[in-house]
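Is this the right way to post structure tokens for a design question? Let me know if I should format differently. Anyway, here goes:
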């Protein structure tokens, strides 16, 4: 399957295992790298204070296409590309995230990835963006202080791209012998929790369901060929 992906900084399975084992007493059984789909979009925030003063900011956001969980792109991030054609494709959307000198560099590329490694899209883009927008507004109001502003608008700007983010799944057995997994961010190496794990689980269930449906269709097709 051909996707546009964030190139994992943690690409070597042996290194990932060593890194994981240094901080855990769990005995890993196996590991794999999977790609979670996100929609990338720009947004504008308009804040109006209690005294009528207006403040406007722009930013770049990722929202996962399984639950609509928003992930902010930090302002110190710069995007680079292995393919100049891909850079041109993203130029208008990424704007200053391409040209300015910044510390945190992430690499994007178009790559053929095994279908089994790619988690399916569950939500339509606009549905995911609306869910992410609601969560974003909640977080901003907490940070800004709801008593300081009388109105807050988060306005998605035109243009979106679907990107795939790498996560390592480390499988282990718990004390009851039941198989579990931890999730590591394929760029930062940080252990994930909460919503990202939930999205991965949703993706795995949906992938299994799609596979079962495909087998049913394939079996019915083969039966029809034999009978006709």
């Amino acid at each position: 399957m051909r996707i546009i992906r964030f190139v994992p900084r943690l690409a070597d399975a042996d290194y990932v295992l060593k890194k994981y084992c240094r901080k855990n007493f769990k005995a890993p059984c196996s590991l794999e790298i999977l790609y979670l789909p996100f929609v990338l979009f720009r947004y504008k925030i308009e804040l109006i204070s209690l005294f009528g003063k207006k403040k406007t900011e722009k930013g770049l956001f990722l929202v996962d296409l399984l639950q609509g969980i928003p992930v902010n792109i930090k302002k110190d991030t710069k995007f680079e590309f292995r393919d100049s054609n891909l850079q041109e494709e993203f130029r208008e959307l990424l704007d200053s995230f391409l040209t300015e000198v910044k510390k945190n560099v992430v690499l994007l590329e178009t790559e053929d990835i095994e279908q089994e490694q790619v988690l399916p899209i569950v939500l339509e883009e606009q549905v995911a963006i609306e869910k992410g927008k609601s969560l974003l507004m909640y977080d901003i109001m907490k940070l800004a202080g709801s008593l300081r502003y009388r109105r807050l608008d988060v306005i998605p700007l035109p243009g979106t791209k679907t990107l795939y983010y790498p996560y390592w799944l480390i499988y282990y057995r718990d004390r009851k012998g039941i198989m579990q997994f931890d999730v590591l961010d394929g760029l930062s190496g940080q252990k994930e929790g909460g919503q990202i794990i939930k999205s991965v689980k949703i993706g795995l269930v949906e992938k299994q369901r799609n596979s079962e449906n495909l087998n049913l269709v394939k079996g019915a097709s083969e039966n029809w060929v034999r009978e006709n």
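Format looks fine. Someone answered above. Worth noting: Confidence is low (pLDDT under 50) at residues 216-228. The beta strands are 2-6, 28-49, 54-64, 70-72, 77-81, 104-112, 149-173, 179-185.
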